[in-house]
Amino acid sequence: MDKPKYFERWFRAKNQPISPLPQQAAEARHTAGDSYVAVLQSQGEKFVVDIAAGWLSVLFFDANDRLYLKYDFKKIEPEHLFLSAALHFEFEDLSNGLHAAVTFAFKTDGSIVIERRNVVTGIVEEKDSYAVPAANWEPYPEFGEYLSVCRANREL
What would the 3-class secondary structure string for the chain be? Predict the structure, then answer.
C-alpha cells in the first residue's frame, strides 16, 4: 500500500479531496481528535479514510473510480470503533449508472436491518437479520495505520 496522502476533507459530490495537509498537520489533527482525510492507494484500488471526533468512515472505490462501498464506524469506547453501517452500491454496467443500493445497519447486540433500494424501479425491500458482531469491532487506528478499517471483506 502506498503512503497515505492527507487532506482537510473529502468532497463527496466530486469524489475528490480538498485542501492538502502536510503529514505533521494531519498527525496533529489525529492526536487532537480533529477531522482530516487520508487517501490510500493499493494495487489500483483507492480507499478514503474520513476521520472525525466520534466517527470514522471508509470509502472504497473500484477500478472505474466509483464509490462502491462505504463503512461508517462509531467511536463507542475511547480506543474502539464499531461498524454501525455499511452501504453497498451496485452499478448497471461500466458507467456510473447506479442500479441499486443496499444498506446494512448494525447494532452492538448483533441485530441488523438490511434495506435494498432499486434506484431504477423505486422498490425498497427491508429485512431484519442477526450476526455475531465480533467482526464489527475495530481498535481505533494509530495515525497512518488504516489497513484494518480498510478491510472490505469481513466475517459476519
Answer: CCCCEEEEEEECCCCEEEEEECHHHHHHHHHHCCCEEEEEEECCEEEEEEECCCEEEEEEECCCCCEEEEEEEEEEECCEEEEEEEEEEEECCCCCCEEEEEEEEECCCCEEEEEEEECCCCCEEEEEEECCHHHHEEECCCCCCCCCCCCCCCCC
